[in-house]
Amino acid sequence: MKKIIVIGASSGIKSINKDLVTYTSSLIDNIEPLHVDISTYNTIPLFSPEHKEEFGSPKEIIELSKLFNTCDGFMISFAEHNGSFAASYKNVIDWLSVQGKNLFNHKPMFLMSTSPGPRGASTVLDSAVNYYPHMGGKICSKFSLPSFYDNFKNNEIVNPEFKAELTTELSKFESEL
Ligand SMILES: Cc1cc2nc3c(=O)[nH]c(=O)nc-3n(C[C@H](O)[C@H](O)[C@H](O)COP(=O)(O)O)c2cc1C
Question: What is the pLDDT of residues 35-45, one digit of tens each?
């Protein structure tokens, strides 16, 4: 079975992006989802070259880096904080990026985002879609869900148009696995 890393890219313990990505991963048959909870990395040191030089990388990052190297794909849903990544997620990615080249190893990626607002955190999603190819990202699918609390209820997308769009994007991702 393909092992897919599933990330709600939020510093929150409770997170609408975790809800969205967990739901989406449950729609694919025959994968093993590897859920990475970014809130458990809230207390690792902020990346700095001096910290790495003096103390090395946090052991949690070394473990996560191994998981990134052995998985078969990625599903990530981004929380947007002031138009950009949640700080805790960004810190994890900065640490991972100095463990080796091509963090995402040309493995299929499904990138998504949501927020309570009408733009659905599309600014941070666009930022990842534009930049992750420079980190070895092979982006197969993208999806932004606006107005989360109107469109996602009882653990599923209730708006038929967004549900249909998600299904289309999901099949593109599955076909690349
Ligand atoms: C510091 C801060 C900045 C935020 N900035 C944005 C923003 O730029 N765009 C947006 O759509 N929502 C913004 N929000 C609202 C978040 O989208 C909302 O908190 C959402 O629940 C975050 O996703 P999460 O629940 O997965 O952490 C911000 C929230 C906080 C606390």
Answer: 999 999 999 99
Q: What is the pTM of this model?
A: 0.97
Nearest CA to ligand 1 atom 30: 81
Q: Whose CA is nearest to atom 8 of ligand 1?
A: 82
What CATH number is given to the structural domain containing 65? 3.40.50.360
Question: Range of 147's domain?
Answer: 2-176
Which residues contact residue 137 at a Cβ distance below 8 angstroms, ignoring those fewer than 6 apart? 103, 104, 109, 128
The residue type found at 100 is G
pLDDT in tens, 37-82: 999 999 999 999 999 999 999 999 999 999 999 999 999 999 999 9
Going from the Cα of 48 to the center of ligand 1, the distance in angstroms, rounded, reads 25
Residue ranges lining ligand 1, Cβ < 6 Å: 8, 10, 12, 15-17, 79-83, 115-117, 119, 121
